[in-house]
Each structure stands twice: as structure tokens, then as C-alpha cells.
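Kindly review this record before class:
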Amino acid sequence: MILTPADQARIAQAVAQAEAHTAGEIVPVVTAASDRYLDVALAWSAFVAFLALAALEMAPAFYVALVDRLLGLWATEWSARAYFGLALTVAAIKFAAMLALLQWRRMRLWLTPAPIKRARVHARALTAFRLSAESRTTGRTGVVLYVSLAERKAEIIADRAVADHVRPEVWGDAMAALLGPLREGHLAEGLEAAIARIGTVLQDAAPARAHDHNELPDGPILL
């Protein structure tokens, strides 16, 4: 479980406190990973298979002799079909072996380029924002705090009324408050600290109005 029931209650309380003096609505969203990166695994497997074929093309005599020794053959005449069969076998084995290795998610994430991870996290954060906060408050004051644990990345996305008054870099304090505890494995504490900082920003960007009421749930959304 990403967050225990006790952690979820603490975060809901932190949201309620942060929203007490603002018309803004804070929605924490936490996911184990933003993507499975299966396309990355396939791309790496194809690349390794290509490298194997390239090595075979560069030193065919060496690999043919190696196969002869492994199979116990002696001065065998290789036909064109045998050469193509060897190339197909080598490529298939390398592809399958790399694909099997990349079923280990930690390895798959390690081999995924950082720009791809950033793009996938951002895309998932936008989806979470659109489904949970965008245009769901009277004054369009929703803010999503999105945390993707596997990639160790987070984003803050605000609805129009808040985004018009808050520059993206203003959220830096909230991100720093989140990432410090998160690096030490304290997710709930990081979320509480970041939510408090977001609440402070919202007090100026979306001041409390008369007859404000809670329009969005306070508890974290777990994906």
C-alpha cells in the first residue's frame, strides 16, 4: 500500500487545514508509477538484437567457428540458409533475453531516458488534473499535487484562476518541502509539508470568500 489509512487521514487533515483560509481546493494524487514503459523495453530489446546481428556481420568467421565448436561439428560447409538461420537465432535469443531482463521494473526504469520519464509523468499528471480538479470548483481554483513514486518526480498543476496569479516557479518551495522527506522514504510527511506550502500560496492567489464550502474531497487519490 502506498499510504496507510492513518497516513491518508493525516493528509486529509493537512488539506483541510491548508484550505481553511483560501477558496482554493487542493487535491493530492499519488501513484506508484506513471507508466509501465513497455515500449522502452521493446526498443532496448530490438537494439540489443541489432547489435548482435552487427557483431555477427563484422566477424562471421569467428562466430561460425564458435558455433561449430559448441555443436561438435568438424569442417562443416555452411550454406546461405544456415547463415541466415544463425542470424535469426542469435537475434531472437538476444531479443528474448533482453526483454526478459527488462521485466524487472527497476532495470526498465533505469534504462528509460530521463526526458521520456518526465514526459510520461507530466502527461499522467495532466490526466489526473483534468479528471479530479479542472473546472470542478466554482471559481476554478483547484490545485493538484501529483507524485509519481517510481520516477521520483512530482508536479503541481493549478486550474485557471490560480494559474493566472501564480508563476510556475512560485511552487518551488512546495516541491522542495515534498522532495526532502520523500528522499528519506517519508511520503506522508512530505505531502503534509507541501500541502501546507500550497495553502500559503493559495491564501494570496485565491483568498477565502464568504460562504465558501469544500467542493472537492480532502483525502489523497491513490492511482
Summary: The chain has a mean pLDDT of 88.
